[in-house]
Amino acid sequence: MAVQSLWIILLVLAVLLVMGVPISYAIGISSLAAILQVVPLDVSVLTASQRIFVGMSKFSLTAIPFFILAGNLMNQGGIARRLVDFVLAILGKLPGSLLVTNVGANALFGAISGSAAAAAAAVGSMVREGEEKQGYDLALCAATNGASAPSGLLIPPSNALITYSLVSGGTSVAALFLAGYLPGIIWAVCCIVVAVVIAKQKGYQGTQGKFSWKHLLSATLQAIPALSLIIVVIGGIIAGIFTATEGSAIAVVYALILSIFYRSITWKSFWRIVVDSAKMSGMIVFLIGVSNIMGWVMAFTQIPQAISAALLGLTSNPVLILLIMNVILLIAGTFMDVTPAILIFTPLFLPVVKTFGMNPIQFGLILVYNLCIGNITPPVGNTLFVAIKIGKTSLAKVMPYMLMYYGAILAGLMLVTYVSGISLGLPGAAGML
């Protein structure tokens, strides 16, 4: 029954996605199709509606709309320019300084805004003028911008990690947040290494003149209000002062105060931000609710146990099992957004990794890291295409550079996958394991 149910879900889901049906409806319909083979229609519909309600009524889910609203407020607050100046003051002496600045600012802005595409658009547009003046290859600039933007999705506050916490059965959000720092930094460092190597080959220099402590102090003071959002919210969650949900509300208040202080928001723009945030939140929360149907179907038909048995039947070597999972997730990420992929693959693979003792926190970071790569991989690759549009270039010109970035980012993935200390070191040191 498990194998048959899995094939029904996958086939119906694939057909509906090819037809252009929204992912939330596709997940719900494919799950309902699998239920119908074992449960009568009236009971199936009732069960499905109950599971949607249960999935959407979790209190911890409230954190996602608040963090989305906070991120959208920060997007309008002139934050990108301050972060670009801050990173340039620190890393400006490296070869290809504007490329390196792009990477660092993307990591910071992506973490604050919660959106890789927003980071690529905001930061990319800020550094593009300087890159054009200094004669940088626009395709290289677009590749650097796109490749580095998803790093911020791993650095808290991360809606992807909150979603994983819910689907995985209550993995600590605070521990996941703390665990996300090193993988996110590794992603950014991998991009910086590639950027510096290419910059040296092309002869791109760092900023001219002597290092200025005065300039660094000025840039830091300008950036501190934005960076403090991460420090206050994440510090409070990790220290146990408030929960992730309470922290998300504090983030909204902080972002609103900062936007008013910078005079970057009006009543009209504030209303538009609220409406846009409500629309985005509604889509995500409904998607999580619908995915709860799939979770119930998988549990009822014992699909995870069947997948676990199949993988363990191929090999009992955890190294090979994780490699197979990575390949599957990388392929899936090329045509699925991060949130629905987390909802689908967590109940499939988490039971498998638990059989050989992997901590759910580490698996969560492996999962999100894999799926973030899909953000910059065609045919979907929304963040990559945003970077190409901002860079005024083409996919054909960008891809040769992207191949080098893919290689470095995949090397980082291997570290996150096979070196548990990268994900578990900080939560362990904080006594969260």
Describe the structure.
This protein has 21 helices and no strands. Helix 20 (395-418) packs across helix 21. The protein has helices spanning 2-18, 23-35, 41-56, 63-75, 79-91, 97-113, 116-133, 138-148, 151-154, 159-167, 173-202, 213-239, 244-261, 267-301, 303-314, 318-333, 338-355, 360-374, 382-391, 395-418, 420-429. 80% of the residues lie in helices and 0% in strands. The chain is mainly alpha-helical. The two termini are 37 Å apart. It has one domain.
* Series of H and E elements: HHHHHHHHHHHHHHHHHHHHH
Number of domain modules: 1
How would you name the oligomeric state of the polypeptide chains in this document? single chain
Report helical residue fraction.
over 70%
Radius of gyration: 22 Å
- How many DSSP H or I helices? 21
Shape: globular
Q: Tell me about the largest β-sheet.
A: none
- Overall strand count: 0
What does the secondary structure layout of this molecule look like, with pairings?
Elements: H1 2-18, H2 23-35, H3 41-56, H4 63-75, H5 79-91, H6 97-113, H7 116-133, H8 138-148, H9 151-154, H10 159-167, H11 173-202, H12 213-239, H13 244-261, H14 267-301, H15 303-314, H16 318-333, H17 338-355, H18 360-374, H19 382-391, H20 395-418, H21 420-429
